[in-house]
Amino acid sequence: MMVRLDQMNSEEFQKYLSFAIKYFADEQIKSGNWKLEEAISKATVEYEKLLPEGQDTENNHLFTIRDGSKEVGMIWLAQITNEKGFIYGLNIWEGNQGKGYGKKTMQEIEVLAKKFGLKSIGLHVFAHNNIARDLYEKLGYKEKNIKMEKTL
């Protein structure tokens, strides 16, 4: 496996954005945060705030993950301050999951983050996403906050 991170072009970004809005909306519904009828519009607003200039939004680095010429996923790293980064998205496309692409991508993004001068990287993972939580813990990411809620 030879993982390479290539800056997204506009076509790849549009494909990612369509996927990401739906995925984020679905995850918010699963978590009990949003209702079905409002989820897509709320997710769209969030992405418009985070990426007002699309893939050209300053301090945001959106990459297509490739294994050779094959597209296997995407990762989005935002530079929050001069020293802190935040991964807003890591998605390995269906059919490519469970093959080590997530782990290798995280290792590659850490190399790039250091080149950008970052000293730390944060990320968010939904509590129900045990596969992602396990991966991040194995890579040395530590929980900093835990939000808990009870539905009545």
From TrEMBL:
Protein name: N-acetyltransferase YycN
InterPro entries in the record: Acyl_CoA_acyltransferase (IPR016181), GNAT_dom (IPR000182)
Signal peptide feature range: none
Pfam families: Acetyltransf_1
Domain N-acetyltransferase as annotated: residue spans: 3-152
Superkingdom field: Bacteria
Gene3D superfamilies linked: 3.40.630.30
Family matches, as CDD domains: NAT_SF
Organism: Halobacillus karajensis
GO terms, molecular function: acyltransferase activity, transferring groups other than amino-acyl groups
